[in-house]
Design brief:
Layout (H helix, E strand, L loop, with lengths): L18 E4 L9 E4 L11 E3 L9 H64 L9 E4 L8 E4 L1
Antiparallel strand pairs: 1-2, 2-3, 4-5
Length: about 150
């Protein structure tokens, strides 16, 4: 139901015209409601959501209407949560694809480096590893590798 301040025939328990307000709570953000115009001081307990049916005075009918409204709100919330989940799943899948591609690239580079190392080790120009000696005569932490 769409209500505007001009449509309001509602009166609070004080007998004043109810004032249209917007909820700023986490649970009901931007939800419109009517309350006592004396807010925030000396207000009565009158409160009516704009999107809920007006009370008819029939206890059972009013309760059914409130339950029906709550069901509609909950269905909308479930839909919103499903949308959020779908968006997060799409983001996750996109990120997984990007990381998988990056991993493949890194693996290919690693394989290339391994092949290059293998070729160098098998080269006739490279002395066998057992023929290398490592000397560290100076205190400057530099290693000198000499072939024998």
């Amino acid at each position: 139901m769409d209500y505007s301040p001009e449509d309001s025939q509602l009166t609070c328990l004080c007998g004043l015209s109810a004032k249209l307000r917007t909820s700023k709570t986490h649970r009901n953000p931007y939800r419109m409601f009517y309350s006592c115009p004396k807010y925030p001081y000396n207000q009565c307990e009158f409160f009516q959501w704009c999107d809920e049916p007006l009370l008819t005075g029939d206890k059972h009918l009013d309760e059914l209407n409130l339950i029906r409204s709550e069901c509609i709100r909950l269905q909308e919330r479930v839909h919103d949560i499903q949308q959020e989940w779908d968006n997060e799943k799409a983001d996750w899948n996109r990120e997984r694809t990007e990381l998988t591609l990056e991993l493949s690239t890194v693996k290919a580079e690693l394989d290339k480096i391994k092949n290059e190392i293998k070729l160098v080790n098998e080269s006739v120009l490279m002395p066998p590893l057992d023929k290398l000696s490592i000397e560290d005569e100076e205190e400057d932490d530099a290693l000198v590798i000499q072939t024998l």
